[in-house]
Design brief:
Structural class: mainly alpha
Shape: globular
Radius of gyration: 18 Å
Distance between the termini: 39 Å
Order of helices and strands: HHHHH
Strand content: under 5%
Number of helices: 5
Helix content: 55-70%
Number of strands: 0
Largest sheet: none
Length: 105
């Protein structure tokens, strides 16, 4: 499924560089082709905020690289909190309600 979100080799390189994993363009291409893009997109589309989507993507790429042993050590990228996007959406809804009701909510 693709709804306009694309994981790039540059995204993969960000994670590899954060873990000081040396890579050549050929190795980067190989690792990129082995990513589970459906899993990454499933995580990304749990969020509406672009920042949360990026955080989710980088965390998922990192998880996949840790599972395959390419990356070792502590996680550098953490996905957003589960309720974080819901809180942003509810703040937007509240401000809309304030405008509709003359500042009263």
């Amino acid at each position: 499924m693709n709804l306009g979100w694309e994981v790039t080799e540059s995204d993969l390189a960000i994670v590899l560089n954060a873990h000081s994993v040396k890579h050549t363009p050929k190795k980067l291409e190989k690792l990129y082709s082995e990513l589970d893009f459906d899993s990454i997109e499933d995580g990304v589309f749990n969020y509406t905020s672009f920042d949360n989507q990026v955080s989710s993507m980088l965390s998922d790429i990192e998880d996949q690289l840790i599972e395959t042993g390419i990356v070792k050590g502590a996680k550098q990228f953490n996905g957003p909190d589960e309720d974080e996007d819901d809180e942003e959406d509810s703040d937007e809804e509240d401000s809309w309600l304030d405008e509709e009701h003359g500042g009263e909510s």
